[in-house]
């Protein structure tokens, strides 16, 4: 998802219209920014939607594989993130985590540097902030400096984290809808998912995770572990 900037802001920043706000690179994007000089260009809404879906499925699969290898009695699924490469956004990431953990019950976000299911990065990118996969079963969220100065930074971070949890963009939605992103404009500061978004995440991490866990357990049995 891309946080869409007003045309005046884009012009002042020297950005093209294709760089409208927060979004994802295609699922075949290059490794995370710290490992590569460039990231594959944003190629349109269909690629964006596919990348969001691939990101969610990668995180879902990663969490399921860890649960299958070391089952526990925790009802909620734990998704571990590494925020060490986005130190400027430590406060916003922590707040986004708090928001999501208080909003849904079937999945819980937890900070950690070992065995993370996805990571946060920071820097400058003309496309703004986005979520993507690295093509190797892992995902990352990139937080753009300029965009986070224009839009409410906690909303940007919480929105991108929504992709990790399976939610697609819906730019035409109202400010009360977190996944409307930058559609309502920079004046929108709401960083909370609405009832429908909360319900959808809980549904995905109940039914979707159960299917992913079943697949992971079968793979473990087949490998003799």
Automatic annotation (TrEMBL):
Pfam families: Peptidase_M7 (PF02031). It is an enzyme of class 3 (hydrolase). Keywords: Calcium, Disulfide bond, Hydrolase, Metal-binding, Metalloprotease, Protease, Secreted, Signal, Zinc. Its EC number is 3.4.24.77. It is found in: Secreted. Its cofactor is Ca(2+); Zn(2+). One of its GO terms (molecular function) is metalloendopeptidase activity. The active site is at residue 160. NCBIfam families: snapalysin. Belongs to the peptidase M7 family. This is Extracellular small neutral protease. It comes from Streptomyces griseomycini.
């Amino acid at each position: 998802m891309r946080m869409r900037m007003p045309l005046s802001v884009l012009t002042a920043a020297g950005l093209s219209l294709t760089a409208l706000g927060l979004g994802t690179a295609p699922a075949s994007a290059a490794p995370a920014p710290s490992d590569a000089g460039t990231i594959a260009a944003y190629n349109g809404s269909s690629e964006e939607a596919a990348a969001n879906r691939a990101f969610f499925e990668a995180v879902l699969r990663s969490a399921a594989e860890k649960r299958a290898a070391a089952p526990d009695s925790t009802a909620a699924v734990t998704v571990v993130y590494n925020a060490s490469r986005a130190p400027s956004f430590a406060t916003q990431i922590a707040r986004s985590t708090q928001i999501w953990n208080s909003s849904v019950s079937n999945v819980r976000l937890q900070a950690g540097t070992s065995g993370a299911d996805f990571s946060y990065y920071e820097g400058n990118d003309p496309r703004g902030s986005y979520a993507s996969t690295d093509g190797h079963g892992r995902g990352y969220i990139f937080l753009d400096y300029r965009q986070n100065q224009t839009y409410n930074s906690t909303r940007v971070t919480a929105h991108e984290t929504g992709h990790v949890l399976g939610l697609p963009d819906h730019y035409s939605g109202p400010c009360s809808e977190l996944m409307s992103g930058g559609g309502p404009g920079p004046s929108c500061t709401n960083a909370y998912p609405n009832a429908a978004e909360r319900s959808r995440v809980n549904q995905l991490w109940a039914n979707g995770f159960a299917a992913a866990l079943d697949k992971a357990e079968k793979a473990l049995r087949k490998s003799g572990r």
